Amino acid sequence: NTAMAAHITDAHRRFLQVLMSNGITEASEARKLHQHCCETDKVYYAHDKLDDFISTINSHLQPLFMQIRKGISEDDGRAHYAVVNLAKTEVTKMASDYTEMELELFRKAMDLIILSENGFASSTDILNLADQLKTKKMKKKEAEQVLKVFVEDKWLSEKNGEYTLHTRCIIEMEQYILSNYQDVARKCNLCHSLAIQSQVCESCGIGMHLPCVRKYFRGQTEPRCPKCNEFWSCDIP
User: Fold this and answer.
1) CB of 106 within 8 A of CB of 90?
2) Which one, of 8, 89, 94, 90, lies nearest residue 52 by Cα?
3) Domain named RING-type: which ranges (predicted)?
4) What is the pLDDT of residues 162-214, one digit of tens each?
5) Phi, psi of 209 (to 5 degrees)
6) 3-state class of 186 per DSSP?
7) Are residues 161 and 122 in the same domain?
8) What is the domain range of residue 136?
9) What is the pTM of this model?
10) β-bridge mates for residue 81, sequence order
11) In angstroms, how far is CA 100 from the centroid of its own chain?
12) Is 169 contained in some domain?
């Protein structure tokens, strides 16, 4: 469609290339990149038009089954952008980068993280599964290296020997996780993104990201669930 193609500029292309090579980009960086690309290409720039700029790119990515998606970091609530391949929503999108054995370890780590109470799995628990892989048993030393690579490639995050899903993984695999873990995967009641590290209402079972909990209950003397209005019994982070 030539009418549509006219709207895309080198600035859009440059922005998309950087986003793809980064894997994931924090919103403040994306805003700087937006300005830089527009100024370099001498096209109209407005600081509050990043979402429109991204929509234009997305309309061109649609036939390629790709999309720039926004998600929030479960750590600090900051927005991030990642390019998602919609044709491969499953762990298979990682298949070109990792061996079947490595992928199996990733799936097992993912199971532990998603089925846990707090959205974390200890390295000990993950490494204990390394010698139970169907493809081929993995030595602990080898498994430690593989986990390191998953952290470097931004599929997992690690803090004090505890692993959780990286923001990039959550943005890219949201659909896969929601359909494969229907009984346990939930969206945050406030921002409606998938919540892995979350607090859950003891009365009605809704979940909220920790940064969303913090924001929602700020300044409230008696925190009450936004859905059922019962007392929120978890400690406010």
Assistant:
1) no
2) 8
3) 188-229
4) 999 999 999 989 988 998 999 889 899 999 999 999 999 999 999 999 999 99
5) -55, 150
6) strand
7) yes
8) 91-179
9) 0.85
10) 25, 70
11) 22
12) yes
